């Protein structure tokens, strides 16, 4: 019996050692696609070059920016958003971090601006990862958000009144908003009229970067090569699962995850790689 248990333990050891644990899978759909730009890894469904990205919204171009401090180094940009700079792509959480401009006003009059519009795109401003922040003495900053509803568009106003700095949360599924900065009258002899006021939408842990959530619609998802390996009703296979939920206006969206024990890119065939896990409740042939 002891010999049998030793043989079983040796068998388990061979099974574990024969599989490369968490081998890094490829993040591009084929080897001809560019894998990075600058210091940013480009992961499918985002990609650089024709035939590499899943559809136009996920097309990235790698080029030098116009900022003098960049020293001409190439950086990735989302082409459909008038070359919005990409800072990081998080496939696991279906998020992309982008560089977002700060709205400022250095006059004593009310100023407004329209911001990035994400309508008809697979992106929205992440409610859980962003805040609306205003800075400046005697400053009132308002964010007017517009998001779809079954009946009509809803306008939600988040007001941020401050004597120095304040922040407020965002609505879920935010697709578009405008920002207004207006000076507030003060009884103080110094009312900050010559000071610049600022309003912006950063990640709370950063300064300028903004986080966008993304997902795929039915048509785009069905065009993925991994869809052929999944059942018609259940969006999953042995290594990854895809989840479908309804957003506002009952618009279905889909995102994918690698199964427990696997890591990699769930949007690619064979993109999720991992290792076998030996569990205590597995059948032991030597117990009988």
UniProtKB/TrEMBL annotation:
Membrane topology note: Single-pass membrane protein
GO molecular function: polysaccharide binding
Signal peptide from the UniProt entry: 1-25
Keywords on record: Signal
Location in or out of the cell: Membrane
InterPro entries: WAK_GUB
Domain Wall-associated receptor kinase galacturonan-binding: 33-99
Residue intervals passing through the bilayer: none
Record flagged with keyword Transferase: no
One Gene Ontology cellular component: membrane
Transmembrane keyword on record: no
Primary localization class, coarse: membrane
PANTHER family attached to this UniProt entry: OSJNBA0016N04.9 PROTEIN (PTHR33491)
Protein name: Wall-associated receptor kinase galacturonan-binding domain-containing protein
Organism: Carya illinoinensis (Pecan)
Source lineage: Eukaryota, Viridiplantae, Streptophyta, Embryophyta, Tracheophyta
């Amino acid at each position: 019996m002891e010999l049998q248990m030793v043989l079983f333990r040796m068998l388990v050891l061979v099974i574990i050692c024969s599989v490369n644990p968490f081998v890094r899978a490829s993040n591009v759909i084929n080897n001809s696609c560019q894998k990075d730009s600058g210091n940013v890894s480009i992961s499918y469904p985002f990609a650089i070059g024709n035939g590499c990205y899943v559809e136009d919204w996920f097309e990235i171009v790698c080029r030098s920016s116009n900022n003098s401090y960049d020293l001409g180094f190439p950086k990735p940009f989302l082409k459909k958003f008038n070359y919005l700079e990409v800072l990081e792509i998080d496939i696991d959480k279906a998020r992309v971090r982008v560089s977002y401009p700060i709205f400022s006003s250095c006059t004593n009059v009310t100023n407004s601006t329209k911001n990035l519009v994400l309508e008809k795109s697979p992106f929205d401003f992440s409610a859980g990862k962003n805040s609306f922040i205003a800075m400046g003495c005697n400053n009132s900053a308002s964010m007017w958000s517009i998001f779809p509803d079954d009946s009509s568009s809803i306008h939600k106003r988040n007001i941020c009144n401050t004597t120095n700095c304040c922040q407020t949360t965002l609505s879920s599924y935010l697709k578009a908003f405008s920002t207004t900065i207006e000076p507030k009258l003060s009884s103080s002899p110094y009312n900050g009229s010559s000071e610049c006021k600022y309003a912006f939408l950063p990640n709370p842990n950063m300064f300028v970067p903004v986080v966008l959530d993304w997902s795929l619609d039915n048509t785009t998802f069905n065009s993925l090569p991994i869809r052929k390996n999944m059942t018609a009703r259940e969006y999953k296979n042995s290594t990854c699962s895809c989840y479908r939920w309804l957003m506002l206006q009952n618009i279905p969206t889909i995102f994918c995850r690698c199964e427990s024990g696997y890591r990699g890119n769930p949007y690619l065939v064979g993109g999720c790689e991992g290792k076998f896990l030996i569990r205590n409740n597995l059948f032991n042939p030597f117990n009988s």
